[in-house]
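Supplementary Text 2. Reproducibility record for the structural model of the 177-residue chain.

All settings were left at their defaults, and a single model was retained for analysis rather than an ensemble. We include the record here because the model underlies the residue-level annotations in Supplementary Table 4.
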Amino acid sequence: YVVTIHDLIMLDQPWSARASTRGLLLFKIKRIAFKKVLRSAAQNARKIITISEHSKNQIIHRLGVLQNKVKVVYNGIDSTVVLAQKQTKKTGASLQIPTPYILNVGNSYPHKNIETLLHAFSFFVREHPDTSLVLAGPQNEFTQRLKNEALEIDIPSNRIHFLGFVTDKELSELYGN
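Retained model, structure tokens:
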């Protein structure tokens, strides 16, 4: 079989326990199981696909696999989305988000450091009151924590937009603006 390993962040950042919605004991059990399954998958796979040279080097050194077993395949794009973006008028109208804005796309797990982005934006928006912060990605317990943090640090509610999941067309529009 072939396995894809995007990164080894769970091995590199022990503080990632903050990303668990379970208790510390259950997290530690889960982490031990994760390490065991990951090492087994890497050692038994015919090939390993990863997304960067950095991840490849980590996989080789941390999981003890041969260099020729790991292949880097960079993340790609959907050319139909790029074409649609070129054909779309860049107004932001369908999402009704005022420009200019700072865009973050992804999940809100603690290791993504969105909390620091919120704090930086709270200072930035004071000097640039017409700028918004747009966060696109899955909504979960961590997103709620970020929403609470945004309230606590007084980011104006009309300057922060938690979009949740967006379609490829909407995402293309967001990047285009």
